[in-house]
Amino acid sequence: MPWLNQPLFADKRRLRIAAVVGASLTAAVLLWALLEHLDPLPPRNVVMVTGSAGSGYEVAGRQYQALLAEHGIHVELRSSAGDVENLAALTDPTADIDFGLLLGGLPNQSTATCLESLGTVFLQPLWIFYRTEDRKAPSRFQELAGLRMSMGSVGSGTHALTTELFQRTGTPIDPALVRTLSADEAADQLIAGQIDTAVVVTSWNARSVQRLLGTPGIGIVGLDRADAFAALYPFLEKVVLPEGAGDLKLNQPPRDVQLLAGTSSLVVRRRLHPAIRYLLLRRRPKRSTAAPTCSMAVGTFPPPKASTSRSAKKPRCTTSLADPSCCSTCRSGWRRWSSGWF
User: Fold this and answer.
1) HSE value, Cβ hemisphere, 13 Å, CA-based, for 113
2) Per-residue model confidence as pLDDT tens digits over 62-85
3) Same structural domain, 239 and 210
4) CATH number of the domain that 148 lies in?
5) From the centroid of its chain, how far is CA 132?
6) Which residues contact residue 21 at a Cβ distance below 8 angstroms, ignoring those fewer than 6 apart?
7) Least confident of 57-66, 245-254, 259-268
8) Residues 4-31, buried b or exposed e (16+ Cβ, 10 A)?
9) Distance separating the N- and C-terminal Cα atoms of the chain
10) Neighbours of 310 (CB within 10 A)
11) 321 within some domain
């Protein structure tokens, strides 16, 4: 039709085309911004940094791996020398670590703005094992001077905490007598008589702790000034290992022992998807059934301190989110995070 080629109708057609193109571009930008903001799909693969072989962190890592696998999330476990290396990996912008466990009180931990704590998971006692051999039981760090000793591998929380406490108490550290061994290596050498003392910061169910508690001739140092250390260091607590809790047959330890314990928290990167955080908060590993439950809160999930809060008085739902019997509170939280996924 010749009249369609007239200038008036040609201009209107160009305006309509421009309006359609502009609206499409605007919709595409808005859709991209919406998807970017909601972060709709949680990842199916995440990476957790744990600790050395046989450590309490490795045990906890396997538990988290099994719990998240129930929801189709694969957790890759990365071993490390311990807490110091964990902190370095979590704060490294080039690393692909998503979450891990950290001991409180580490240097530069409070300045790590890229991390977020999901709360305390368990206590890690400072175990000081020694060979008895007609030796008077030590009760202070100064009495360990001059002994062949393992202070933990470099990069571990054991090494960092022990170094700090030795310096605070004025206990000399002789490089010729100190060895930087992992917990399992320290246990081997202590049993073999190659060292006199082994300092280990790990949980009750760690392989090295269970071995040493059941070995005749190996004692545990009880600190008579544990209250003072707990007052000076906010991240430390005094705990008591009851008589016979290590081995009832051997009555190990032969008396109640005062220990120091650090709090270990589950720490995630802020970029971690909210759905994964929700699962980590809700599906915490269960406490070890072999752990003492009196005045020593080792291996508890969550620790006894949480039981004093009003929220902790409510019963926790232990069913799967896919189970129809799951409580309404958990389901509402799940729907809140999942509403933007699909």
Assistant:
1) 0
2) 999 999 999 999 999 999 989 999
3) yes
4) 3.40.190.10
5) 33
6) none
7) 245-254
8) eeeeeeeeeeeeeeeeeeeeeeeeeeee
9) 48
10) 6
11) no
